[in-house]
Design goal:
alpha/beta, about 375 residues
């Protein structure tokens, strides 16, 4: 059976979603023949497998990568591409994408390709880019700005109802959509992860934050928190040159100095620094928590639906979302926090790459039998 994984992006790249994409391809290739369509390879074709190994530490040598420019995947060009491409595809191929636009086009053109379509949706609360947080705060506008270019809910419902299998990374999203539009072929998978380093409190460094430091990632919440806890220090890895400059300016204006700012690190090299930390901070839902879990780090995370479905209260450090006072209070009292590392390990084992692969492949095999 052949999986055609399609994504509207360049690859490989520095973004967190490319790590999750690479792990998904790594899992799929164990069970299926895999072709991956990207808009552009960021390295020469003959160097793609070495570049993937260097950045992600994974071997995707059995995956076939094909470049299809984005302009060929829109309008009438999409039909011409699909007709030509479908001629060389095995009949038992399945399209798999996390692009809503591609899912829409592929599901509307089944009369041409006669293939099943799988959509992996990362929407929160069924239809939104980020978790819906009750109440108003100074960060509400930032969240609202991010939703402005979100896909219309009615359009999303139409896409959801047309695809053959709908996979959500949020359990609540799956439940909401199943109730709203009665989609039967729906499942919840969250993110796949490795078990690299054991959980322990015996580490030299305390708190780390990895990932983007743009305002859209609520980095202002971190700055406002550090104002309140001058004796709490945090190490930050990531951010573009522009993001770093803006972050430093924000900190200077508020007199914040209790942080260290380090360069972005490829996924493969993260363990070299993360192995030294006890706690990892996430300001909103995101894949960085997977990096923390893989490296035996206790997550400090907002109390939002996606996380509540995964982590019992005693397995992580929760703070009220968008609340710098509550986050500051949690950081002040980390020494008094009791986290059940055994439960955290069980959670990590449940979402391990092997379990993820078995569940995903079984769901796909089941789809093919229908």
């Amino acid at each position: 059976m052949n999986i055609v994984y399609m994504i509207n992006t360049e690859y490989p790249n520095k973004k967190a979603h490319s790590v999750q994409m690479t792990k998904t391809l790594y899992v799929l290739k164990r069970y299926f023949s895999v072709t991956c369509i990207v808009n552009k390879l960021t390295v020469e074709q003959d160097r793609i497998y070495q570049a993937i190994a260097d950045r992600y530490g994974l071997n995707l040598s059995s995956v076939k990568f094909v470049e299809i420019p984005k302009k060929k995947l829109v309008g009438l060009s999409f039909f011409y591409f699909l007709i030509r491409f479908n001629k060389v595809l095995p009949k038992d191929s399945i399209f798999y994408t996390r692009s809503y636009n591609l899912a829409k086009r592929l599901s509307r053109t089944k009369f041409l390709h006669q293939k099943k379509v799988i959509l992996e949706s990362h929407k929160k609360d069924g239809y939104f880019k980020e978790e819906l947080v009750p109440g108003l705060s100074k960060y509400t506008k930032i969240r609202q700005e991010k939703e402005k270019d979100n896909i219309n809910i009615s359009t999303l419902k139409n896409i959801y109802s047309r695809v053959d299998l709908l996979l959500f990374t949020s359990k609540k999203s799956a439940e909401i959509v199943k109730k709203d539009i009665g989609v039967k072929k729906i499942d919840y998978i969250w993110y796949p992860l490795f078990s690299k380093i054991n959980f322990t409190f015996n580490r030299n460094k305390n708190i780390v934050y990895i990932g983007s430091i743009s305002s859209y990632k609520l980095i202002d919440l971190l700055v406002d928190t550090l104002v309140l806890v001058k004796d709490c220090h945090i190490d930050i890895y990531g951010g573009s040159v522009k993001e770093k400059k803006e972050f430093i300016q924000k900190c200077r204006r508020k007199g914040v100095t209790n942080y260290n700012l380090y360069d972005y690190m490829p996924y493969k090299d993260l363990s070299t620094v993360l192995k030294d930390y006890k706690y990892g901070l996430a300001l909103m839902e995101g894949i960085k928590v997977v990096d923390y879990l893989e490296n035996g780090i206790i997550p400090i995370i907002p109390r939002v639906a996606t996380y509540l479905d995964i982590f019992p209260e005693e397995s992580v450090v929760y703070f009220n979302p968008d609340d710098p006072e509550d986050l500051a209070d949690k950081l002040r009292n980390l020494e008094n926090v009791k986290v059940d590392l055994g439960k955290l390990k069980k959670i990590r084992d449940f979402y391990s790459l092997d379990n993820y692969g078995e569940r995903l492949s079984n769901r796909i095999f089941s789809l093919c039998k229908d």
